Amino acid sequence: MRKKGVYNWRAISLAGFPLICFLLIFPFLVDSEESYLVYFLFLTFLYISLAQGWNVVAGYAGQPSLGQHAFFGLGAYLTAISWKGGWIGYLDPLGMLISGMGAAILAIMIGIPLLAKLRGDYFALGTLGLGEILRVVFTQGGSLTGGPVGLMLPSSEYRSMMPYYFIAFSIALLSLLCVWFLVRSRVGLALVAIREDEQAAGANGIHVLKFKIFAFAVGAFFTGLCGSLFAYYLFHIHPTGFFSLKWALLPVLMTILGGIGTIMGPIVGAFILAAVFELANMWLPESHPIFSGAFIILVMLFLPGGIMSLGEKSGRYKMLMGILPFKRASLSLR
């Protein structure tokens, strides 16, 4: 009999490989410029990456950040400024990497004082303030940032939706693999130990601040990548849109909806909420906050552990679960 927390990864691979293959060939089966599904999947992949990044910080390290919009906006502006300065080009991988690393460096710089002094709700409020500070800074940034109007990028570079789809898919897959390897490593066990009991983890030799900063930086890196790609997609980067609070709330809602602290939860939550957003906007434009809010309230009332908690009720669904074994992790570290 399989122990709790040990999953049939061979079965998961067999189930996931055909899906990945289908997603890779799907844009070639339809008109990528006319098909709404290609655009929908592009956004969904973006949401998955955002949610997985937040899941590392809050789901595994137990540090609820509300400042992801700071890293999203910073990633977008680093790409825009670098492109206009002639240092990078259109959909430049180096530009996206610079944006992700820039967001991670900011997370480390801010994380050292915040994570050392603040915990729980106070840390969440501190990170929320970071996003608002950056929004004001970039609004008052003059010609470098374009001020409140923002920066316009050469939209004539746009050729096809296809590269956006595959880059977003690659980032989502990278975030999934990163979390998968993370939770199976000693780093993942340390993060869970910190989340479960920070004082006990520190007493057993875990460098609490170092691991919390690491998780914060990983989440910021993927958020910065997403901001960079979205800047390439919109061609108009402005502080109101890219430092909007929605980029902080979306990953929170999607992760909690799917199942916080699981690998598959952010994926499920991203697909469902993205579908709710699009369907709601088709029926009643700009109504998606109402529908998504009501949907999340229902889930929290009847499935407080998220949609992935359904798998705990039946062994046949456990292979879909990506939950790190909390009890076993604690025992192996103490």
* Topology, number of strands: 2
Query: How much is the average pLDDT?
Result: 85
Strand order of the largest sheet: 1-2
Cα distance spanning the termini: 26 Å
Series of H and E elements: HHHHHEHHHHEHHHHH
Unreliably modeled segments: 1-7, 315-334
Cα-atom radius of gyration: 20 Å
Give a structural overview:
There is one protein chain. This protein has 334 residues and is mainly alpha-helical. It has a domain at 35-245. Helices cover 70% and strands 1% of the residues. It is built from 14 helices and two strands, in the order αααααβααααβααααα. The protein has helices spanning 9-29, 36-60, 68-84, 93-117, 120-139, 162-183, 186-196, 198-203, 208-234, 239-242, 246-258, 265-283, 288-302, 326-333, and strands at residues 151-152, 236-237. It has a two-stranded antiparallel sheet. The two termini are 26 Å apart. The relative contact order is 0.17. Mean pLDDT is 85; it is low at 1-7 and 315-334.
